[in-house]
Amino acid sequence: MSERHASSAAALTTRSELARRVSVLLPLPLGGAYDYRLPDEMTLAPGDFVLVPLGTREIVGVVWDAELGDVADAKLKRVVEKLDAPPLSGELRRFIEWVAQYTLTPLGAVLRMAMSVTDALTTPRSVLAWAISAGGRAALARGDAREITPTRRRLLEAARHAPPMAAKELARLGGCGTGVVAGLERLGWLEKVAVSARPDAELPDWRHRGPLLSPEQAEAADALVGAVRRAEFSVTLLDGVTGSGKTEVYFQAIAAALEAGRQALVLLPEIALGVQSLDRFVRRFGVRPAEWHSDLTPAERRHTWRGVAEGRLPVVVGARSALFLPFPKLGLIVIDEEHDPSYKQEDGVIYHARDMGVVRGSLSRLPVVLVSATPSLETVVNVEQGRYRRLHLPERHAGAAVPDVRVIDMRRQKLERQRFLAPPLVAALDATLQAGEQAMLFLNRRGYAPLTLCRNCGHRFQCSNCTAWLVEHRFVRELQCHHCGHLEKTPEFCPACGAAGTLAACGPGVERLAEEVSARFPAARLAVMASDTLSGPRAVAELVRGVEGHTIDVLIGTQVMAKGHHFPLLTLVGVVDADLGLSGGDLRAAERTFQLLHQVAGRAGRAERPGRVYLQTYMPEHPVMRALTANDRDGFLQAEAEERRRHGWPPYGRLVALILSGPDDESVNFLARALGRAAPHLRGVEVLGPAPAPLAVLRGWHRRRFLLKAERGVHLQAVIRAWLDPIKLPSNVRLQVDIDPYSFL
Question: Is the CB of residue 460 less than 8 Å from the CB of residue 452?
């Protein structure tokens, strides 16, 4: 039986025994590898995928270059099989180890992200195909007129110059029926061969010419191409205003990577953001890139993983998890919208894809490009300190002007009852529709209303599993928790007092906004764009095509429509509740709100027609609103940086969030008090808590939170390990550690 290194108590083995054993890391939440014995006929190297026994089952793992244990050879189980899959490269194995150490995650849990498609580790299924045989080639050379009819000759000539293919495809190529294929097989002039069932991917052509670049774009593109050709680690911020053509600039870097025979990875924060980017890629390179996201079918995931590992897929556009794909010859990483909070994974292995992308670039010695019109403060500080280079695109492409941003002070507006659009925005919307142009209304709140209550007794509908209100989704007559997914049918009677017809929707969501716009402008063609109204990439693509084709006049939605889209006829953007993201205890609230609203505003006036943006706010004097109306991003970031520096918050200090959770409130509280008593008392380290998390109950589990704040020079991981290692967690309590947290719920 295999043994953990740390628990081994057997006598030391001989050198010959050590030579016939390997360490195998399993994709399980384990801290290290297990030793296995090699069968006599088998040789393995680090990175090889193997099938090994574990208890009563067999599991796939990876041969790891770890220190071997001293368990007696006779006690070890044998490796069952070496799998026919490309090995994990040394660079990817080092990256997995780095992520595990930084995030304080078991090594096997990180490995699981790099081998998430176990079906791709087996030999691809074979199918029968037809190819010309040696006898067929000889018959063609002899030119036997009696046996080789013109039809047969045509088919044999086609087969001689084509790879093996299905009978139907070969017949189509030869301009005949499948009966001719069968006849030539009987003569022995065609033969059946087994070929891989995987489709051969069309390769992007880096020689395709892109659009003519402006002098500023060309200068930035040349700098990125130079970084790719140098084939060494660097990080470049491509900082350009919305509509400045940043995508076309980094396409030049992708072309340079392809020309050098290298692979390229482009990370996008949202599937919705990828629709027009993929179209641009096709126009630039002739084919679609490989995609990697949660909406792929199992077969698509298997094909993509294997194609990447074999080097057959040169470009991947994907979500954050694409960072763990097994590229054998990666030459470029592009992280588009690098500021987006979607790059932070909050469950399982907790990591930030932007930061880990920079780490992978460093370990693989390749250039990393961060792209944004509103870069994160962390990235801006890295530029200022000389760690990153900055390329700036200050103008919109083709002479388009930045939109005019205006504030609507809601304290001075008189709204109609159950209406949420202020008169100036209604007037602007009317003028836009009259001109045959398009408008976008932004409200970062899904559903119809965020709260439903009874006007008779005051009962509020709350999730039974979370400390959160249920959101009404009127289109489907449901109340839904947006944290755990709990659903209830909207009742006709109040469950507390039994009154009928007394339930009232409080506040607007995008569905309620659509209802108001439809009532005000019945002839306008509306569409709602939110994560729960879009079933996947195809639905997103159809909606985008509708806006592009002007079959939609008003687009109403949440943050999924806020960035990356280019609609030439969209000239008006209205933000219904600009203050929404400024509340709460998030230290990045102002930065995030500025980034989001700036990106939303950037959808307006991206072509010849000028754009207008209206921000409905109750805080027009807030620094975010002032910066947006003055188009003063750099001034806002400077003020935000000074505030963070004064208080030692990131990026000038470090944070670690620890959340204890469990189904029993008393058990969680008891352990929280124990952790609090054991908290470190070190110079440059401050521990806040324990305290109930803002979401004190989530999915039925009670939650208590600590926040460790430290100076930049503190080795956080060592401090956390020394604090937590002596603590024994009961089986019904979970401890989650988040290095560099972005969410404070």
Answer: yes
